[in-house]
Structure to design on (328 residues):
């Protein structure tokens, strides 16, 4: 398909990696800033409709937001046609290493590839509920914007990730994992170096791969590197900026991480407003999440998954680590 105004992916010989993917070269990201600010996301075919909803929510609920770039990690032709029709900037992620599709390695590559000084990453299974200009204020002041996952690094970071980051396994103790769902960087100075180091580490598969169900790939690497540099990391409210139960989880909520649980009517409304104007729009709570399950999660919080597995008699059933792009 001819992309027209779309950015073309660079040839793989220009991606900045040798064939064996272990020798890292600078991709000159800091030398070619095209934008001061940019929002980026990525999606495969299974998240195509959610991607369109994200773009529509940005248009309706964050007027005058920074430019958006979409990274293509396997989008279907129908979604690509919609993006082209709306003149959305799309870059296809190249096969920059053997495991690029696994362990969210592609996400760390996108953080490095984007040609902007200040970058906000938003997962495609998200909708924006209100403007979040304060993220870029935080990037000016701190160089980063992060929210907690409410899980500990002892649960989410592998020993291999610790070794790659140059910290002892007990370095994880008492430290909250930082979410990769909604995260911002100013790609210069100390933070720019951390973003580059995260990619260098991710190119060695054992550093980013999960060996247990709860290991969290890109989140583990960026969390370890930020804690290593700053000791105390400043975090924003995780429910305001990464609320997951509903778009009305807390007063003042600005981001809803629906992970494809958004009601089809709301999803389609957002998708119809990628570039067309309209009033701000608040989606309804998801139908799929029963009131019982919602209350259960509110009561038990972080341990909810383990309690649920125990009640179902699943504690001895092996859990397979999730390693990247969804195909369904």
């Amino acid at each position: 398909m001819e992309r027209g105004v779309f950015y073309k992916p660079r040839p793989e010989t220009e991606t900045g990696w040798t064939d064996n993917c272990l020798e890292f070269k600078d991709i000159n990201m800091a030398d070619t800033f095209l934008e001061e600010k940019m929002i980026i996301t990525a999606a495969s075919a299974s998240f195509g409709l959610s991607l369109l909803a994200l773009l529509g929510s940005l248009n309706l609920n964050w007027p005058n937001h920074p430019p958006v770039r979409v990274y293509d990690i396997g989008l279907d032709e129908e979604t690509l046609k919609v993006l082209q029709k709306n003149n959305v900037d799309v870059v296809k992620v190249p096969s920059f290493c053997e495991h690029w599709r696994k362990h969210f390695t592609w996400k760390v590559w996108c953080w490095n590839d984007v040609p902007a000084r200040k970058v906000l990453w938003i997962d495609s299974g998200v909708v924006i509920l209100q403007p979040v200009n304060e993220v870029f204020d935080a990037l000016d002041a701190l160089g980063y914007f992060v929210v907690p996952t409410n899980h500990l690094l002892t649960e989410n970071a592998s020993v291999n990730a610790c070794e790659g980051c140059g910290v002892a396994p007990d370095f994880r103790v008492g430290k909250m994992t930082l979410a990769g769902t909604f995260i911002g960087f100013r790609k210069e100075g100390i933070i720019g170096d951390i973003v580059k180091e995260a990619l260098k580490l991710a190119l060695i598969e054992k550093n980013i791969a999960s060996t247990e169900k709860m290991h969290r790939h890109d989140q583990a690497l960026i969390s370890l590197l930020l804690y290593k540099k700053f000791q105390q990391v400043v975090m924003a409210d995780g429910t305001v900026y990464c609320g997951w139960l509903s778009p009305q989880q807390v007063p003042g909520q600005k981001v809803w991480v629906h992970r494809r649980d958004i009601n089809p009517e709301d999803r389609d409304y957002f998708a119809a407003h990628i570039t067309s104007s309209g009033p701000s729009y608040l989606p309804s709570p998801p139908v799929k999440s029963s009131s019982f399950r919602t209350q259960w999660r509110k009561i038990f919080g972080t341990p909810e998954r383990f309690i649920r597995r125990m009640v179902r008699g699943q504690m001895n059933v092996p859990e397979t680590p999730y390693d990247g792009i969804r195909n369904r």
